[in-house]
Amino acid sequence: MHIDALQEHILQRLERDGEIPLARQIYIILSDLILSGELSAGVKLPASRSLATDCGVSRNTIMFAYEQLLAEGYVISQTGSGTFVSDTVPVADWSHEESALKEKSPMTEHQRYLSKRGSELVSSAQASAEQWQPFVSGVPDISLFPKDIWLRLLRKHWQQATPAMLSYAHGAGYLPLRQALIERLRLARSVNGTADQVLMISGLHNAISLIAQLLIDPGMTVWMENPGYWGAATVLKMAGANIVPIAIDEEGLAPTPEQIAQPPKLIFVTPSHQYPLGHVMSLARRRMLLDYANAHDAWIIEDDYDSEFRFAGLPIASLQGLDSYQKVIYLGTFSKTLFPGMRLGYMVLPENLVDYFAIGLSEKYRDGRLLEQAVLADFMVEGHYAAHVRRSRLRYAKRSVLLREAINEQLGPDWVSSNVEAGLHLVIHLPAGTDDVAIARAAKAAGIMVRPLSRYYLGEPSRAGVLLGYANVPDELIKPRFAQLARIIRSELRA
Amino acid sequence: MHIDALQEHILQRLERDGEIPLARQIYIILSDLILSGELSAGVKLPASRSLATDCGVSRNTIMFAYEQLLAEGYVISQTGSGTFVSDTVPVADWSHEESALKEKSPMTEHQRYLSKRGSELVSSAQASAEQWQPFVSGVPDISLFPKDIWLRLLRKHWQQATPAMLSYAHGAGYLPLRQALIERLRLARSVNGTADQVLMISGLHNAISLIAQLLIDPGMTVWMENPGYWGAATVLKMAGANIVPIAIDEEGLAPTPEQIAQPPKLIFVTPSHQYPLGHVMSLARRRMLLDYANAHDAWIIEDDYDSEFRFAGLPIASLQGLDSYQKVIYLGTFSKTLFPGMRLGYMVLPENLVDYFAIGLSEKYRDGRLLEQAVLADFMVEGHYAAHVRRSRLRYAKRSVLLREAINEQLGPDWVSSNVEAGLHLVIHLPAGTDDVAIARAAKAAGIMVRPLSRYYLGEPSRAGVLLGYANVPDELIKPRFAQLARIIRSELRA
């Protein structure tokens, strides 16, 4: 393609009212052209300002796309002379390439402005902009939420709101909510403890950040499940943790002997429903983990993000309930049981940490929102919470079955990763070497949000696959939308 | 005092239904006895378990008080043999004391559990547990808030809530709110920019934490006003910043030539109403600051926390409005104009940082609460915000006058620090050497919350004084409550 045709090509493909941000669209268009060879190595891209004018978008949009291309190695930037398509055919002579790179010393835009850790955060960003499309994972069916009941309780609490309920919170949050919550956790999750050990916090990320700052110093080692939740890894890295990825097998966390010989200070696990693979940690492995943490004075974070949703088999108790050493910090969230926008989560802490965490919470976040916590306390005490979870569980169980049927019909048996029927998502494993990122990208263009499994791995090697959330897809859409996705998968498998 | 009399003394002084947490009360009682010599050096304190039983409180309560005493050097702990009152009379022979200390190697409870930075956070904690008593600073008069209007808007938005409004937010927050906000900031604060540059964030602490992680790496230097807002310093320290305290003079930030020679990466200022002293940064100083930041590639955080409340004189424009270099990050909050428990603040960013901060926000916090943002957008667009601020301003102006009159009547003229009539608090300066912490403690026991000025200083030397918030004290209580406080101040000055 001659560079003059570029503008026209972009204008043709750009969807101005589409779901995908313009910068991302331009990045996709350009990377497609480079990978296909239509824009060949050495071609100079138009200056961001002029391309922006030609395409009728802001200069920031173009710059953002260029930076992404630069960060991923599609283009190189030479100060003063412009941006050029890279030679993406691998070269044998590494030393030559290295010296060439040094000579050019490309500096991406974000490296210019941001700190090292900031650059790393931005270039490894994973959160989806869109949160409400078929197969988006980790989002419940918000349309089930009993808005009328919530609104009635909101009205009640606003009408009787004292200034203290609208001011800053003192430490651990609204006591009646913490009481209702520990009752529920005792019953549903076999969690041990009292309301004093419960801290309300605005979301899992803030909880992990507080734990990291109070319990570890920069450079200390944290074990993360691999694959695992990238958001937790991001927050821990930002707090200076040295992340060591630990493999997952059928029984759960499976460190190597070398890893075992170097105990970490903190261990992050999802024992009841491994995220994203769905395994349940075996009892033997749980006890080994607790003994190990106790022997080496390590803390364990148990992220029990979606365990209220188990459709078959025996309920699986929390790891915290087994812990006689006071080493487990139990984390939960209302994002999966109620709605994510609420931004309210909770921690159940070992007794000897409670007071420190209450202080740390006040100092680090100066939390508030007591009125909403009072609304939620009523919602739980009046039984609406349990009823809503029960209703949601039935709905999700049905959708899980529908999706499994669709997978069988479209792709045949033996594709789903986990035989544990629980949670809000499942994983389809794909043959080694499948480009799951390309599948996710093609699906996104078709209005389907799946996440590539490879992106959940910290470093190599990774398995290919896609995560599918079924909780928020209307029953009648599951099969047709999956059929669409299956076409994309089959076409990628043939490629 | 014989140790057997301790239980009785504690039971006599303990207020079980009081405002002060029990652990804190016990800490105060014991430290008083040690300082007064009634518990003399070498006396062994009862075991925490038995004292807890005797006093009818939990063991945690006693342990917390003991740890605080240990951290502050009132007692020493010898493993296996117990907790002993320290010799608090200074010793001349330092080397002797040092070796004695080493021998004992006292380790406070929190050092046992927490990281270094966690221990530091907990032992320097400053947030007040009580937020709704006369003269608490930084809290507006929440009783003025038009709850009915808010509730009406809440009902409207809940009734029409789509799932997307209840899911995670995408990056920067709800656009109509950001539009309403930038209009207001342009008008009221001379802030430059567009809605694209506005990011909604759940409070100032989270904003500072995000800035620190995106723009500085551990060990980099940050200038903080001295005295200044301890909460900002805490968050920056937790993010690994090397805090350099910069003195404040009548014109604002006043670095020494040595400090100027070592440019920081980030500068935190409150130019419109220095916190806590109340000075306004002069125009000359503002321009110097902007030129300096630009020349040395430093970022400036402008914390414009309460500038909507100015009762006299010309309005003072934001520093951001003067910045032609795109170096200023402007921060504001609804905590002072609406109510603190809302937990909603905002940043106005330089254009070249906007996209990165939107990504960083999603990755680090996964924000939500779009429905509340929509309510607030309506509240602003319908004019309720401006009306509420205007009404609050008149009320606070009156209370500021009443408090100044009370100070004049009780203590005479020339005590108030700042002649700028603005904000939610003022400072009374006290003669050098006055123990303002003791005043604050005595006031607290009488149900009056004042903050000691010395606590706002990072390192020595500090000035003595007390901060008085007047915004949330009913008109008719200002004079009687201040008379009470004046008695405490006078008695401390005589001591």
Brief characterization of the structure:
The first copy, chain A, is an alpha/beta fold and 495 residues long. Helix content of chain A is 44%, strand content 12%.
Roughly how many Å is the radius of gyration of chain A?
25 Å
Helix content of chain A: 40-55%
CATH architectural grouping of the domain at 166-382 in chain A:
3-Layer(aba) Sandwich
By DSSP, the count of extended strands of chain A is 13
β-sheet strand percentage of chain A = 5-15%
| Global structural class of chain A | alpha/beta
Query: For the largest interface in this structure, which chains are involved and how many residues does each contribute?
Result: A-B, 85 and 85 residues
Shape of chain A: globular
How would you sum up this structure, described in words?
Chains A, B: It holds the Pfam family GntR. Two copies of one chain form a homodimer. Chain A has 495 residues and is an alpha/beta fold. Among the domains of chain A are: 116 residues, Winged helix-like DNA-binding domain superfamily/Winged helix DNA-binding domain (Arc Repressor Mutant, subunit A, Orthogonal Bundle), CATH 1.10.10; 217 residues, 3-Layer(aba) Sandwich (Aspartate Aminotransferase, domain 2). The first copy, chain A, is 44% helix and 12% strand. Chain A has an eight-stranded mixed sheet, with helices on both faces. A three-stranded antiparallel sheet of chain A has the order 11-13-12. The longest helix of chain A is centred in the C-terminal third of the chain and has 28 residues. The two termini of chain A are 23 Å apart. Chains A and B meet through helix 6, helix 7, helix 8, helix 9 and helix 11 of A and helix 6, helix 7, helix 8, helix 9 and helix 11 of B.
